[in-house]
Amino acid sequence: MQYPWHLYLMGTMYIVAGIIHFIKPKMYMRIMPRYLPAHKALVLLSGLAEIFLGFSLFFPVTKDLAIYGIILMLLVFLLVHFYMLSSKKAGAGIPKWALILRIPLQFFLIYWAWFYLQF
């Protein structure tokens, strides 16, 4: 079965996002909620998960499992998005309107992933 081009776009997006976790881990560590332990390890682990799940979208045998993994990952990442709204320092200098906009964007990404379960 031929997948739509935008499934490959989504997979590539997660792969690139995951690679950035390794290139600029400090950027992600700045936005980690204080109550979570081992910030650097969590940043690298989440980057590895994004890369793995992104590649897994490309293969019929792993696609659906990857979709469920992406949805779960995006739900967990909501913790970071809400934490960033908790204070100016937690927001890492990002304008409040952009931080608020990230919440519905996260739900759009979840829907986008869910959409591919039909293929």
UniProtKB/TrEMBL annotation:
Keywords: Membrane, Transmembrane, Transmembrane helix. The chain crosses the membrane at residues 6-23, 35-59, 65-85, 97-117. It comes from the Bacteria. The keyword Coiled coil does not apply. PANTHER family: DOXX FAMILY MEMBRANE PROTEIN (PTHR36974:SF1), MEMBRANE PROTEIN-RELATED (PTHR36974). This is DoxX-like family protein.
